C-alpha cells in the first residue's frame, strides 16, 4: 500500500461462515498480505465461547443479557447481534520464540493508544506482544492487552505471545472503513496519511462510510441487468434516493447542492463510468421526489440494516429501473 492512497475493498475470499462479515474477511486477508508468513488459523474469527469471538446473541443466551464484557457497553449493544467481533492473527515464528514481528505491530498499537489516535475510535482492544516491557499493575511484561475504549492495560493469557487479537465495536463489524483505519496504523501510516486516503482531507470516517455504503450497495454484485445505460440511471437515482431520505446537511446532500455531483471525491467512487452520461440525468431528477426514489431509499436502508443482501438489493433496483416493454 502506497501511503496516503485510497483503499481497495475488493474481497479476495468469501467469509468462512455466516458469523463473519465481508469486512472482517477483507481485514484478515489484508493482515496476511501485510506480514507474509502469518496465518489465519481455524477459529481465528468466530468461536462459540465467551467474549468478542462469539456473537452478542450467543453471549446473552449463555450469560444473561449484557453480562459478558463484550456485550455490555453501548457500542456493543448497537449493531448486528449475530456476528463475531474479533479476529486473531497468528505468527508461527513467535510460536518458535521469535517475537520480533508480532511485537512490531504491538509497538505501533501501543504508541497509537498513548497518543489517543482517532483511528482507534471503533475498536475495543488489542492483545499481543510489545518489544519493550511495560508496567501493568506493577508487573513488567511484554505481553500486553490494550483496552482502547476504557483506556487501560492488562496482561492477557500466554497464547497472546504468538498471536495478535483484535476486538471491534459490535456496531462497526460491517464497516470496511473502521478496519481500514486500523490497517493504516499497523502499516505505520501517520494520521495525516490516513486522512489523505479518505475521500477528501476534511472528510470524516462517518462521511466516508456514507459514500462507501452507497457504492457497495450498487456495485457488489454487478448483475447484467444494470449494465450499460441502466447502470448510469441506477447510480443517479440511488444517489438521489439516498439524499432525499437524509437531512439537508449530510455530506452527499451538501455536495449535490454545491456542485451537482461534479465534485471529484464523489466521482472517484464511480471511476471508470461515463460520468457525462450520469450528469445528463441529474437535472431532470433533481426536483423529483418520486415513488421510485422512495422505493430505492427503502432498498438501500434494508441493505444497510442487513435485512437484504447486496445481490437482492441490486436485483430489486434493477427490476425497478428496467424500462417497461413497449
Order of helices and strands: HHEHHEEEEHHHHHHHHHH
Strand content: 5-15%
Using only C-alpha atoms, the radius of gyration works out to 22 Å
Distance between the first and last residues' Cα? 50 Å
What is the multimeric organization of the chains shown?
A: single chain
> Structural class of the secondary structure composition?
alpha+beta
Shape: globular
- How much helical structure, as a percent, in the residues? 40-55%
Query: Can you give the mean pLDDT?
Result: 75
- The biggest beta sheet, please? 5 strands, antiparallel
Number of helices: 14
Uncertain spans, ≥5 residues at pLDDT below 50? 215-234, 240-290, 321-326
Number of strands: 5
Strands across the major sheet, in which order?
1-5-2-3-4
Name its key features.
326 residues; alpha+beta; five-stranded antiparallel sheet; 14 helices; 5 strands; 11% strand; disordered C terminus
Account of the 3D structure:
The protein contains 14 helices and 5 strands. With about 325 residues, it is an alpha+beta fold. Strand 3 (about 140-145) and strand 4 (about 150-155) form a beta hairpin. The longest helix is centred in the C-terminal third of the chain and has 17 residues, at about 230-245.
How would you summarize what this structure contains?
The chain is α+β, with helices and mostly antiparallel strands and 326 residues long.
Topology at a glance:
Layout: H1 22-34, H2 56-63, E1 86-90, H3 92-95, H4 100-114, E2 123-136, E3 139-147, E4 152-154, E5 163-168, H5 176-186, H6 191-196, H7 205-219, H8 228-244, H9 251-259, H10 264-267, H11 275-279, H12 282-286, H13 291-305, H14 310-321
